[in-house]
């Protein structure tokens, strides 16, 4: 696959292979633990969805940017801004995503306040 599709094809093939053997490893790894598979996947799925959305948008942008004559530095900066924006918007659109963002911000501010008080 890497020969026909180049570096991106090799990366996608590695990603697919990793996911294929990762799923059985999750079941084995969580065996006889207080964390069940449903809890694990319900926690991980929103992150996977937001990351996939970010990846799709960045791949589309890369194809568009390859057609333009913009410099590599400007493409990197735009990609970073685009990645952060798409990831955040995807989290907002996921059911329960806003609540999770608020919880994460609350946890982060608690850690900062605790660190400053110590």
Q: What shape does the CA trace take?
A: flat
Residues in helix, %: over 70%
**SS-derived structural category:** mainly alpha
DSSP strand (E) fraction? under 5%
Number of strands: 0
Order of helices and strands: HHHH
Number of structurally distinct domains: 2
User: Rounded to an integer, what's the Rg over CA atoms?
Assistant: 19 Å
Which whole number gives the mean pLDDT?
88
Point out poorly predicted stretches: none
Q: Report the biggest beta sheet as strand number plus sense, adding barrel if it closes.
A: none
Determine the N-to-C terminus distance.
54 Å
Give me the number of helical elements.
4
Question: Can you characterise this structure?
Answer:
The chain is mainly alpha-helical and 118 residues long. It folds into two domains: 1-33; 44-117, no CATH class. It contains four helices and no strands. Helix 3 (72-93) packs across helix 4. The N and C termini lie far apart (54 Å).
In short:
By secondary structure, the protein is mostly helical.
Task: Give the topology, please.
Blueprint: H1 2-29, H2 37-67, H3 72-93, H4 97-117
Helix pairs in contact: 2-3, 3-4
Features of this protein?
118 residues; mainly alpha; 2 domains; 4 helices; 86% helix; 0% strand
């Amino acid at each position: 696959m890497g020969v026909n599709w180049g570096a991106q094809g090799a990366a996608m093939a590695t990603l697919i292979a990793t996911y294929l053997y990762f799923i059985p490893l999750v079941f084995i790894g969580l065996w006889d633990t207080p964390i069940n598979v449903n809890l694990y996947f319900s926690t991980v799925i929103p992150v996977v969805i937001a990351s996939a959305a970010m990846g799709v948008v960045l791949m589309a942008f890369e194809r568009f940017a390859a057609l333009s004559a913009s410099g590599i530095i400007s493409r990197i900066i735009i990609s970073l801004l685009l990645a952060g924006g798409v990831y955040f918007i995807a989290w907002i659109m996921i059911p329960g995503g806003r609540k999770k963002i608020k919880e994460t911000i609350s946890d982060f501010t608690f850690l900062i306040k605790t660190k400053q008080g110590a």
